[in-house]
Amino acid sequence: MSRAGYEVFALFQVALLACLAAGGALGALARRRLTDRLGPRGLLTANTTAALLLGVTVGLAVPELMDASGGWGDGQGLMLVAAVSAVVSGFCLALGTWSTVAAEAADAVLARRWGADTRKAPES
Question: Exposed end of the chain (fewer CB within 10 Å): N or C?
Fold first, then answer.
């Protein structure tokens, strides 16, 4: 690979990482908003939405990437599809973070909330 080609490749990698980070930040904010508004159901909603969105995006992006790899000589279309995929992937990965589920479960165990009903019983 020539020096110019390597520099373009390195710049493209940095741009993809920035896209992943931006998507991840937005996904984390969306997950937090959902859990604040919907409580434990917000976490399930976030995980389900992330899985659905990621599946639809990959299903739509893979054919584009296949077409782009042979059809566009300049590579700009391929870079655009890759950048959009990186943003959506970062968003979905942050939105559907299963470690949050583990943290919520650990909090429930430590608080001795074993059942589905996590509300406090009224004091007599």
Answer: C
- State the DSSP H helix or E strand holding residue 33, giving kind and residue range, or none if neither: helix 3-38
Assigned token pair, 22 = 């931006």
State the alpha helices, DSSP H only, in 39-97: 40-71, 76-95
This prediction has a pTM of 0.63
CB 90 within 8 A of CB 23: yes
* Apex 97 CA angle, 22 and 13, nearest 5: 35
Q: Three-class SS of residue 112? A: coil
Residue 57 CA to residue 76 CA, distance in Å, equals: 19
Mean per-residue pLDDT of the chain: 76
Crossing angle for the helix pair 3-38 and 40-71, to the nearest 10 degrees: 160
- Of 84, 74, 109, 91, residue with least CA distance to 24: 91
